[in-house]
Amino acid sequence: MNKQQLANKIWESANKMRSKIEANEYKDYILGFIFYKYLSDYQTSWLKKEQEMTDEDMTSLTEEDEETVNYIRQEIGYFISYEHLYSTWLKKGSDFNVSDVTDALSSFSRLISPNHKHVFEHIFHTLETGLSKLGESSGARTKAISQLLHLIKDIPTDGKQDYDVLGFIYEYLISMFAANAGKKAGEFYTPHEVSLLMSEIVANHLKDKEEIKIYDPTSGSGSLLINIGQSLSKYLKAENKIKYYAQELKENTYNLTRMNLIMRGIHPSNIVTRNADTLEDDWPYFDDSDPTNTYDPLYVDAVVSNPPYSQAWDPSNKEFDPRYAEFGLAPKGKADYAFLLHDLFHVKSDGIMTIVLPHGVLFRGGEEGTIRKNLIERNHIDAIIGLPANIFFGTGIPTIIMVLKQKRTNTDILIIDASKGFIKEGKNNKLRACDIKRISDTIAKRESIPNYSRLVTKDELRQNDYNLNIPRYVDSSEPTTSWDIYASMFGGIPESEVDMLHDYWSAFPTLKQYLFSHDHAPYMTMATDNIKEFIHNHTDIVQFKETFANSFDGFSEYLEQLLIHNMPELIVSQTEDVISDSIFQRLESIPLVDKYEAYQLFFDDWNTIASDLEILKTEGFEATKKVIPNIILKKKDGKEQEIQDGWVGHIIPFELVWNTLLSSEYTSLKDLENQLSEIPSKYEELIDSMTEDEKDSEVLNDSNDSFVPKEVTKVLKELSKEDSTDELASFISKLKQADFLIKKEKELKTTIKK
Q1: What architecture is the 1-179 domain classified under in CATH?
Q2: Which of 1, 49, 200, 680 could form a disulfide with 440 if both were Cys (CB 3.0 to 4.6 A apart)?
Q3: In this structure, what are the phi and psi dihedrals at residue 7, rounded to the nearest 5 degrees?
Q4: Rounded CA gap, 331 and 315, in Å?
Q5: What digits encode the pLDDT tens for the residues 404-423?
Q6: pTM of the shown model
Q7: Domain with CATH 1.20.1260.30 in the chain
């Protein structure tokens, strides 16, 4: 079962199990238990690897062994005794009780290392206080928790691939709970694709740095920070060079941030989090026990945020707050600019920030108009990206991403209308990989593209009274066409409509003059009856196809060299950009082909390819010779159960091996399978041709939809002894056909099985 199948299974089961508990609450329980499993499994794995402990040795892990307890706490930040390990809970079976969980969580809190309190303290508070909601009695709670523990037992938590699977499932569950949480979804989740877009913009700006600090002042689940870290890792030469700062108001969401960061293998010393109101309780941060040595005013390389939209706040007595003093105070009914100015204040002089906001910040007047004017005049706004509507869970309002910097060499603002680039998925719209790349490339190159993006000068913005409303500067509307009544009545193709295909006439310069007759200008007629054949055989089209094919000459060899022969040196996280750059270069001189649509075709398969490459780098080329069980979900007695349905290649699909090395045998097998698949329809034709009396002769089953082989043979023998009639001969003929099909079906199944 791959990670997507496992994630689907866990989500579907969890959604059924939560009963009447709201999705927004239930997520805290299941995600809390996944995190506890991670910590438990991590400690076990660490002890086996670093201390060479065996499973039997693990049974001696108790709080009484103070020396061992203190050593483990010092090394990994916490200690879990054997009786409180997740694996021990599973082994208890029917002896497991809800008290095992409460005792374990209490013990965990007591045994956190003093040096790791900032990471682990109170991290299970939401889970501890919420256990009572999982059932009205101790027995009901025990049953509910036991079901949860068994549901998540297959999530791997050891090794690089497993961190990726764990992170994928965690992110998937958060997104699915967000999709089912209604208006509360925005409290903890930024859609993955929006997060990736912000990450790519930030990573490109910081790609030459060796150490990086990033900060999210409304961190939610922490996914924004994690995605930026992953995007930056493509450029960093060393590990553990990113420091993550996060602040979140709501305790349960704050705990999600910490859990998510820890489970991605980020070193605790690189995690600094605060459970506080961003607007009311800003940094500098310091530990009360050591304020001098822990003082941190927090200036970072990048700030990213998706704050609550148009939230009320209290601007009283904040006119001298250094975050707002230069620009003005946001109105008390809308804190959008308060969050933006907070973010900008914490950006270093060479840093960058991206923030998601509602469209209203671009044109609303009053205090917001003053702030916007000051931001433009002080040259802080770098770009504005208009996103598709209905892209966030819990709200359908259109939103923007604003990119700002402390110091810029440019004085213009790049405005992008990306509202048309998305795919519909369920009730929401979703950015595709090609949409993300198109936007991030446009930002990086600061390009003006007709109907998509435009560099707007400060003078033009002044003339428009600092109104940044996107349609003022970028017209992304589809061109309108009018009906030509004359052409509709008397025939002919208006030249104006043909001219609208100017991109094609530019790509195929002589096609137009031969394809159309111009005898009745301004109306045209087709110069050929067989339009399709004429176009395919035209020299411009033939040349276009040849040029396209030639542009990808050697591409297969290039991929083989890059991905196979260079495997030891391959950095998988950077390889996607390398291949996409090659595709873009090959398409550079090819008209009409949208390179971003081509990129999407590549990306659709890239995640599978990247996963295989990671396995090859970890397990070696021997992994290509391995097979793994093909686990599927099948209903039995009304319940879905996991069963093995044969085997699949660990890396190489069986069908690829068959087509490449056993092509003749595979072709023969497919032919036999095709013959076998045709037999049911032939049975059906025979049964439909039978009279009611023939059907009553017991050669069919009770439901009259299939033959009974033994009865067919028996009735044939009996009928062969009777005097022949036309009616009898017809029935015997049908039975002989059925007998032939039965034997043929059995023979084919035997041959295929061999």
Answers
A1: Up-down Bundle (1.20)
A2: 200
A3: -65, -45
A4: 7
A5: 999 999 999 999 999 999 99
A6: 0.83
A7: 1-179
